[in-house]
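As the work plan foresaw, our protein records have gained a structure token line. A representative record is set out beneath this paragraph:
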Amino acid sequence: MIDLKKFEVWFVTGSQHLYGEETLKLVAEHSQQIAKGLDSSGKIAVQVVYKPVVKSTEEIYATIQQANAAENCIGIITWMHTFSPAKMWIRGLSILQKPMLHLHTQFNRDIPWSSIDMDFMNLNQSAHGDREFGFIVSRMRKNRKVVVGHWHDSEVVAQIDAWARAAAGWHDWQGAKFVRFGDNMRFVAVTDGDKVEAELKFGFSVNTHGVGDLVAVINDVTEAEVDALTAEYEASYNMDAPLRKGGEKYSSVYEAAKIEIGLRKFLEKGGFKGFSDTFEDLHGMVQLPGIAAQRLMADGYGFAGEGDWKTAALVRAFKVMGSGLKGGNAFMEDYTYHFDPNNSLVLGSHMLEVDASLSNGKASLEVHPLGIGGKADPARLVFNVAGGPAINASIIDMGNRFRLLINEVEAVEPQNDLPNLPVARVLWKPYPDMKTGCAAWIYAGGAHHTAYSQNLTAEHLQDFADMAGLEFLRIGKDTKLDQFRNEIRWNEVAYK
């Protein structure tokens, strides 16, 4: 599992020298208590670290410069306990390279009606100190998240955690490497895109390695390594006797294990955080990587099929953001529809590669023919995905910008057996309804490949989009198609 506790967000409080040492001492004490309270709440995935109160242009600049350089700092939380003249923040904010959350709170929850005096008023000025700060951030067109409420409020803490998780996903993209084995699936448009612009915009690189480079590693896998992994398969999944060692279909499992071991070695040696492949370009491989892709995703790697590097990167970001939360994140594809007017459903799946972290039970390892690719029968994990709230998300290259599109959905448990469908599968109802949800997705140019999440929400993705400078479109319970189409039109103007 990806450990988010190695990351820090810095709690930076603004004030000024106007109020004297006694007031500044209280500002520091209060700030320390808030930072400690948030950090010890057990509700925020990363560490919240107190930093000394900043009271001048020079202190602000130095603190932000340090945050930029600190490897484990993934963002800053700002709060103005008193009034902090905002021109002091211009130099610092102009160099800020990390995400920012503006916490509009105050140390005390209630006004002390019987004792309030001007000393109290001078100390507790967040109500207008944060407005001064908010102006300069807006004037400088800096993206940030604004969270309003008392710092003990559970909703406030949850909003901070959502932002911190998004910041972890964004941080993980910086300098990340994704590998494509082969090129994009021939003639397919939506899975392709501008890899140079993506590196400029998102900080990760995508480069292609010939499949032969991978095959050479696979061919060096030892018998002992394969024996150990196939034994792990038998212990972890339901497997019929013909697939076990000595069985008539064991050779397919054997080859699948070789592929997984080789892929894992290749990714580890190259420092890659995810990969894509395409069934049209797997020369030298005996079968398509089915269970290999599924298990590597379960370990945190990003993946998408047919050369779809954008979705592979998004799956990896989902893995980071959702670390430690109940539920899984995986590569997905809208495959076919159930157009019953009383129970319309989407069946999501892929040829082989859906991560078993989504499963509602123990997965079965199975070997079946595959109608495309021209390879031997591949091994894959077969299971039903658990029901419950989820999101589907797609990154699309719109030419002049990247768009992040999400659809909130409700997954449902299968109501019928699927004895002849030998792949992982999920059924869901798109919000706000089948016709509106699907039409909105198509109007927005959403891909057929998605990152599917059981534990992230629109809030996580909105925060992530703000950090990445992504256009963000949400299809949810309150979506009206005419309004959604207008939002698309307005965005076209905004991004020209």
The chain has a mean pLDDT of 96. The first strand starts at residue 8 and ends at 14.
